[in-house]
Amino acid sequence: MQPNNKQYSQMVKKLSPPSPKLKDCICAFLVGGLICTLGQLLLELYSTCLALDEERAKVLVTVSLIYLSALLTALKLFSKIAKFAGAGTLVPITGFANAVVSPAIEFKAEGFVLGVGAKIFTIAGPVIMYGTIASVLYGFIYWITTLF
């Protein structure tokens, strides 16, 4: 006999360990804050030490954070940080870089074309597609509303 939805929910609730929500929130806040602080430190470093204008320094910060996230993912360290930090690693650029690199690494044994090339956008592909469609739609709506 299979349990109904209510019975199943009660079983799951009874057997699942309680989640330490406060600890999870603090860890996510701290790690997310550290990632953002690293970004700000890199911005200051690139602006002062390399004497770059703000726009170029911001681009270099973005590239640096993507590279560090991809490197940490390849070294299997990003998942350990994510296990500790939870949502704190989802600071958009680092989480997105991890989402792109993870499937590519997982399927590298299948080769560069059918493995890495085919699987690299498994997770990130829908995000890119819907983000592009949404931005075109919002841009069109903005354009229409500014004509009048």
Shape: extended
C-alpha-based Rg, rounded? 21 Å
Mean pLDDT: 87
The percent range for helix content is over 70%
How far apart, in Å, are the first and last alpha carbons? 65 Å
Number of strands: 0
Q: How many helices?
A: 7
String of helices and strands: HHHHHHH
Computed structural class: mainly alpha
Ranges where pLDDT stays below 50 over 5 or more residues in a row are none
Percent range for β-strand residues: under 5%
What's the quaternary structure here? single chain
Biggest sheet statistics: none
What attributes does this structure have?
single chain, 148 residues
Structure description:
The chain is mostly helical. The protein has a domain at about 20-120. The chain is about 80% helix and about 0% strand. The chain contains 7 helices and no strands. It is extended and about 70 Å long. The mean pLDDT is about 85.
Blueprint (SSEs and pairs):
Blueprint: H1 5-15, H2 21-48, H3 54-74, H4 78-85, H5 92-106, H6 112-119, H7 124-147
Helix pairs in contact: 2-3, 3-5, 5-6
Quick structural overview:
The chain is mainly α and 148 residues long. The protein has helices at 5-15, 21-48, 54-74, 78-85, 92-106, 112-119, 124-147. It has a domain at 21-121.
